[in-house]
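Researcher: Quick one. two chains, 653 residues in total.
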Amino acid sequence: MRRVVGPLLALTVALVLADSAVVTLALPDILRELDTSVAQVAWVLISFNLVLAIAAVPAAVALARVRPAVPTALGIAAFAGASAWCAVAGSIDVLIAARCVQALGGAVAVVGCLELLVARYDERRGITVWVTAGVVGTATGPFAGGLLTELISWQSIFIVQVPVAVLAVPAALAVVAMPLPTLDRHRPDVRPNVTLALLSAALTAALFLLVLLLVEGWSRSPGIAALTVSVVPVAAIAAGPLARALRPSDEMEVAVGCFLIAGGLVGLAILPSAHLGWTVAPQALVGLGLGLTVDRLTAKAVSLRLPRIEHAGWTIGARHVGVVLGLAVLTPVFTADLRDAQVPAQEAITALVLDAPLQPQGKIAVAEALGTALSAEQGQVPELGPAFDRIDVPVEEQFALARLERDLGDQLERAATRAFRDSFLLGAGFALLALLVVVAPRRRRTAS
Amino acid sequence: MSRPHSLRRLALPLVALVLVAGVLGVQVANGGGAYEPLRPADACSEQVVTSQAEGIEGLTEQLVLLAVADAACALGVTREALTLELARSGAVTETQVDALREGLRSVVAQMEDDGSLPLASELVDEALDSADLNRFLELAIRALPDSLVDAALKTDDVLLRAIDDLDLRALLSNLDDQGDLNRQVEAAVTQAVKDSLVDRVRDII
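Model:
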C-alpha cells in the first residue's frame, strides 16, 4: 500500500484538475442526450470551475488547522460519489448540481493532497509531484474526455474516475500528517497568482475553443478531436528538457512561456485551412508555453510560503477564476461570431449553387434540400451530407453534385474557422497580459 | 555578468521568437488569415452565365440569373443576398419586384442587341411539346416554315410581353411549388404569343 500512496494521491490531483475541461468534448453529446440548450450545457463546465475557484481557499484555510488526512479522504470520497452521480444524471439540472458537489469535494481533495504528498515525500518533492500532477491533469483532460466519449459514452468520463478516487481514500488515510504550527504567515504572492489566472483564461481559449472548432465547426468526431489536442500535453512534456538545456531564469522561463502561448493562439486564429495538420504547430507552441509556465508559477506561489496549504488554495482558486473568466469572456464572443458567420456562409453557398454546372432542376433540388438543412440547424453548423443524400440528379451530373457538396463543406469550414478567429485572438490577449504582469517592474521596498 | 552566461540567458527567448515567427510565417505564407468564406462578386460587374440546359430551360436560367444580378446592382446588394431575400417567402418588397422586372426587361434588350437571343423558330417545337394545344393546330404550326415563324414572332417581343404580364410577386411567393410555377410562366408566355400575333396581324391589316 505504502508504495502506491503517493501515485494514488497524485492521480487524484490530476483527476480533479482534469475535470476542469474533461467534459469539453462531451458537451455536444450531453446537449443531445439531456435535451438542453447551449447556454445551459456550458454550465456543466462553468459550474465546476466556479465552485472550485470559490471553495479552494476556504477549504485550504480549514485544512490548515486540522490533521489533513481525514478531511482529504472525505473530500476524495465526496468527489467519487459526485462523479458517480454525474454519470447517472438524467437531466441537465441534476448534472450541474452533481458537478458543483464534485468541485466542492475536489477542492478539499486537491489542497489536502498537497499536505499529504509533502508528508509522504518531503517538501520539495511533494510540491513538485503535486504541481506536475496538476499540469498533467489540466493538459490531458480534454484528450481523455474526448477519447472516452468517442469509445464509450460521456457518462464513462465520470464512471472511470470513481474506482481511482475510491482507491485514493484509504491512501489518504494511510498518510500521517500533522498540521504545521503557524508561526509565520505570508501574504499570497499576487504576481504568480494573477499570471496563473490570466494564463488559465488563455489556455481555456486554446483547449476549449479548439475542441469546439474541431467538433462543431469542422465536424470531426470527439475521438479525432481528442487525438488532435493531444499535441498540447506532449509539447508540455517536451518543455521540461528544453528549459533544462537552456537554463533560463525562472522569470524568463515564465515570460517566454506566456509569449509562446500567445503565439500559439495567434497561430490558431490564422489557420490556412481546415486540415488538422495545421493545428499541430500552434498547439505545440501552446503546449510548450504551458509546460514552461504553470508548474513554475504554481511552485513560486506555494514554495516557502506559510501556511503552504493556504497558498496552494490561492493558486487553485486563481487558476479556476481564470478558467471561468475565459469562459465568461470567450463564450459570448464566439457564439455571436458564429451567428454573424451565417450570412457570409449562406451567401457563399448561394453563389456556388447558382454557378454550379448542374441543370436548373438540379440546382432547385439542391437549394430546397439546403434550405431545409439550414433552417433545421439554426445557430449550429449544418451537416450537408444528409441533405445531399436526398438529391436525385442524372448520372452524368453526379460528379458535379459531389464536387458541389465538397465545395459547400469547404465554405462552411471557412465560415466556422473565421468565426473562432476573434476568440483565439482574445485568448492571445490574455496571454500577453500575463506576460506584462511577469515583466512589469517590481515595486521597490523602502527600508524602514 | 559573464558573456556566456548572458548569451545563455537569451537562448530561450531567441528559440521562442524563432519558433513563433516560423509558425506564423509559414501559416501566413500558406494563406493564413485569408481562410474565409467566398466573398460574393460585385453584382454590377459583368456577369458570365453558362447553363447546362438547352432551349427554353437554358434561356430561362440565363435570363433569371442575369436579371437577378441586374436587380441586385440596382438595389445596391449582392446577387446572392438578393437571391436569399427572394427565396424567403413573404419577405419580397415592391421595390425588389420592380427591380427584378426591370432587370428581366433590360437583359432581354441586351441579349437582343448582342444577338444571343434565339429565334422564335428555334424554340417553337419545344414550346409545342409542353403546350396543351389541339392536335391539328399543333401539327399545322409545326408545318409552318421557320422563316414564317420568325417573321410572325419576335423572341424579344414575346419575352417582354410575358415579363410585363407575369405576376412576379405571386411567382416569388410560390417558389416551392414547381408545377404551379411552370403553369404561371406557361400561361404568361402563351398569352404573350397570342398578343404578339394579334398585334402583328393588326399591323399587316
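The interface with chain A takes residues 8-9, 11-13, 15-17, 19-20, 23-24, 26-28, 30-33, 35-41, 50-53, 57, 60-61, 65, 78-81, 83-84, 87, 176, 178 of chain B (CB under 8 Å).
Researcher: Thanks, that's what I needed.
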